[in-house]
Amino acid sequence: MPDNSPGISDGVGRTCRQWLHPELDPAATVADLNLSPQSLSGIDVNWHQPYAQQWNIDIQRQLSRTMLFDIGYYGNRALHLTAGVDINQPRPGAYLSAGVLAQGPVNFSNSQLLNCVRPYRGFGPINVSSSRFQSNYHSLQVQWQWKASDNNLVMLNYTWSHALTDAPNQYTTPQNVYDLRAEYGPADFDRRHVFTGSYIYHLPFYRLQRGVTGHLLGGWELSGIVYAQTGLWLTVNGVHIDPAGLGLADFNSGPIFDARPDQLANANRHAPHTRGQWFDASLFTDPPADGIRPGNASRGSILGPGAWRWDTSLFKNTNVNERMSVQFRVEATNVLNHTNFDQIGTAVLFNPVHFGQVLSARDPRIIQLGLKLLF
Hints:
Oligomer: single chain
Strand content: 35-45%
Distance between the termini: 85 Å
């Protein structure tokens, strides 16, 4: 069978063919170079149709004429989820056993030599949409509801949940396609605790709005919603080396910088949780440059910042006559102006100065006024 190794040079005139088969070129003459072997994309030939299974059990109890309690378990399982996979990814350490490169690290300058040891030689990355992934979700959901006269209402909701997957979204590629178990972790939307409380209260004074006093003091309505939730799980990636030679530093691989570092301990334990340092960034380091394995940091190992907010509204409904009314409203989101941190710097290479820091926050207090004529 003829050799179809691409002619990638190591900078001194030797190509992939000469690295893998030096006996073919004893004179060590310089062959034609192909510094950009063709990259392909497509659909995995072992495609399966994605599907989901869902189940739940729910119990409701009427505690009184105005009070209701509900508790339920909800779960689902999704199989054959789709995500991107490089089916031409070199095996960990293959560049060492083939002698293509010396012992690590593989970086941007020499990553193209990994094409010498890809399974399908003569091609670069072959990124396909694969349906080999899965997820599962389990949750406990509780609700308490109180509905009184005059359409007054109070509702409290709490959810404990856990969503796990080896494909957080269809745009994230696994670090090592030969070890998908290392990708199994919290889903991008996984929040462990979520609480919401809402209320509507009509002030009982001057409900008939008789006379000037009734029109001024009657028709007031107070409502709002309070929510509190724990943070999302984040992944640290973007290290500047590719120790196992997986092609993660190759710009032709599509999504790059998916290489993860080594994690020495739980970076959430005793974390400062301040604007300048959300998690313990000192617990992440470059993997050993021995060409044996990629970084051992798991996906979703950082718990991001949670959030809580109180939105409230005050309405004044004034009856002009039987067919016409005027509504004045004051609405405030995040009325207490609580600071809720948002984006966290998790890319070691893209913004090393901001690694571990809070990069943005959610909206501050916002107040708006409105006037509506109803007829």
